[in-house]
Amino acid sequence: MDADPAELIAGRAALAGFTRGGRVSAGGASFLLRAADGWCAVTLSRPDDVASVPAIAGVLGMDGTALDGIVTRTEARAALTAVARGTPAEDFAAAVQLVGVPAAALPAAAPAPSPAGKAAPAGAAGWPPWRAARIAAPLAGAGLVGAVGR
């Protein structure tokens, strides 16, 4: 049986009442940020992840004390968006990961064809690379990434 991963994911979200959010996941915890030289994906699913935003700025050599009042995911996303703009994607993702928040710098190139020889999904050149799904569910992500290429 061939299954379209995008259709499966979108169908499940629709059943749960979620709608498209552009660069933000259906639940709002995962989102994409434009870095100085590419894109990063970050997941702020836990309260401690939101509270870590000042520390992320500090790791990058910025004054994080101005960010101490951040209490919502929306505020944290806005602060990280501003920080990411002037930071290379790999450096930004490494700083976020250093404080224990799930993040990844996304590849600039389109995914290679799957081992079965099928081409990458339509629209895969550029964005969204399917491997970004790994940060949303670190334990289940490896299985999803393997299934997408089939």
3D architecture notes:
There is one protein chain. By secondary structure, the protein is mostly helical. It contains seven helices and three strands; from the N terminus they run αββααααβαα. The chain has helices spanning 5-15, 47-51, 53-59, 73-85, 89-98, 133-136, 141-148; strands at residues 30-34, 39-43, 103-105. The protein has a three-stranded antiparallel beta sheet, covered by helices on one side. Strand 1 (30-34) and strand 2 (39-43) form a beta hairpin. The longest helix is centred in the middle third of the chain and has 13 residues, at 73-85. The protein is globular and about 50 Å long.
Task: Tell me the layout of helices and strands.
Blueprint: H1 5-15, E1 30-34, E2 39-43, H2 47-51, H3 53-59, H4 73-85, H5 89-98, E3 103-105, H6 133-136, H7 141-148
Antiparallel strand pairs: 1-2, 2-3
Shape: globular
Helical content band: 25-40%
Number of strands: 3
Low-confidence stretches: 126-150
Strands of the widest sheet, in order across it, are 1-2-3
Taking the sheet with the most strands, its summary is: 3 strands, antiparallel
Q: Distance between termini?
A: 10 Å
SSE arrangement, N to C? HEEHHHHEHH
Gyration radius from CA atoms, angstroms: 16 Å
Derived structural class: mainly alpha
Tell me, rounded to a whole number, the average pLDDT: 78
Taken as a percent bin, the fraction of beta residues is 5-15%
